[in-house]
Fold:
Amino acid sequence: MFINLINKLIPKVKQRIVISTFPDYDDMTRAIVEEESVTILLGDRYSKKPLWLPESVNTVQKKSLIGLWYLVTSSKIYFTHGLYRGFKTVNSNKQLVINLWHGMPIKNIGFLDGKREVPDFHIVYSSSEFFCPILAKAFDVDIEKVLISKLPRNKILCRGARNKSLLFLKEKYSKVIVWLPTYRKSTFGDVRTDSENSEALILNDLNLHELNIELIKNKALLIIKPHPMALRCKVLASLKFSNILVINEDWLVSRNATLYELLSYSSELWTDFSSVAIDYMSTGKTIKFIIPDFDSYKSNRGFTFDIGAAPLPGETIQTHTELLHSLKENKKFHILLTSF
Structure:
């Protein structure tokens, strides 16, 4: 591959660092640019430059000659979803490649997911000892390549409220719940079907009117952010309820915010098999796992560990009735799992 040849031959700029993430301006990127001077390699999809991005940060298109130039002349590279297909590392003393991935995997990834190839790197971050052997197997690397380190984005999750545009959440509501369902059927990138249920919110019997009434009683706001790779849901796009808000990346950008900053304002997280749950554990706040399609998901995508032996760190919800009951009872469910 031509890029690998020129990467071997071209000298590196000692202080040049590049990062490639999805979305382009995600919380991994945000945390790293606050600490290091980097060039961001932008993906194919247009991303509006956020106000929180320092003016000194350079941005270039990943699939361009200038993007390639920055990559092959950099001395350090970060990525969350890979770089260029077929890209191979050179000596780490010359150019260090760090795989941040996009969270600690509950669902199968890499070779555990049947992939034929995975990104090449020198180091992959693991937030705990529990995930070290999982990541080593997923990427088929020696355990020495797995470095226990806090994920950069968790600094934003745990540092507390700073964004004035999000203050209304704490001022108007006694509880802010963020619902982050992962995709079941993806529409781009790794196009796949991970469950027989491809609905955006999974619960087939979900009654949003009843849910909104209960949220009003609790003086709570439910913020739903569908996965960016999920099927578009017309019902969600047209949803208008007093205490339910559906958002996307544009909503966050317009408020100079990122997802983990929003999560830092939240009181509770609803999710399923998303790695965000592992990160959210560090806040000590309540997590609800809405997973009525557990068996289907297990059969199609599968999990990186035995969930029966190491239960998910929160309450499991399988029906709309269970969700309403949990909300009415104001259940707080904590599992302290040091292994995670």
